[in-house]
Amino acid sequence: MKHSTTKTAYYHLPGLFEFYDLYSVFLPLFYSHREYFYDWCDIGSVYGAPSDCIWGGGRVESGNRDPREVFALMREYGISARLTFSNSQLEPVHLADKKCNALCALLSENDRVQNGVIIHSDLLLDYLKSHYPDLYFVSSTTKVLTDFADFLNEVKNDDFLYVVPDFRLNKAFDRLNTLPDLQKNKVEFLCNECCFFGCMDRKRCYEAVSLNNLGKDCPDHRCNAPDAKTGYRFSKAMTNPGFIGIDDIQNIYLPMGFSNFKIEGRGLGSALILEFLLYYMTKPEYQIHVREAVYLDNMLDLF
To answer: Which terminal CB of the chain, N or C, has fewer other CB atoms within 10 Å?
Structure first.
């Protein structure tokens, strides 16, 4: 997957499998009615994983679409597909998993655009490099890289085409701006995180999800953050100190040389994902047109 040197914001969108129905409506609209959408943004990738993938992490997956159908939709529009295989608790015995290997083999077949894998485990990284060399790799935000020196070391790692830092580094402008252009091209900021900015349990939360995906008998992680019971709300995410809005992207990040922005939301509903697509990509005067096109499709599970 090549980087661009133009001032375009590339969004990496959630729900490759989980929100297939939504993207099957949104993508034709995006590419046939570009006048509805900001000309300074484009789609860099769509990421996710089907249900019951033991290599999965970050969220417990729920998508059950046929992978060939999913990858074909991305190929049709020249969009990079990413498998979210960010399980941090993998052991050598897990590398032989048939389902995950079959998915990587399918992902490698695309001759139109390079596809990738979002990854946490060094064990899995070494395995995928050896067995699926045509794929690129993204260092997962589940590593919770809050120390800038650790983040910088990750950016310098040639194994990764992209690195997603912890959202609490989003506004470290004095240090971020010291990166050379080639390193800035690798940074992918998580824009809309709702997690408590002072959370000390983020890594443990991701570890619990990883163990769950492996079928391990472990207690669910209980979030003790303020307002945790309210769940995800975009309005709350917008007040997070690490939030990156469209004004930030246009007036701060793009001029600084950063162009990759991740939108979270695999564990949410289609209605919220649509709100993200409207806010980050759609001109206000055309948002009603996009809403109508999506709402009129009865296949969508909006809530």
So the answer is: C
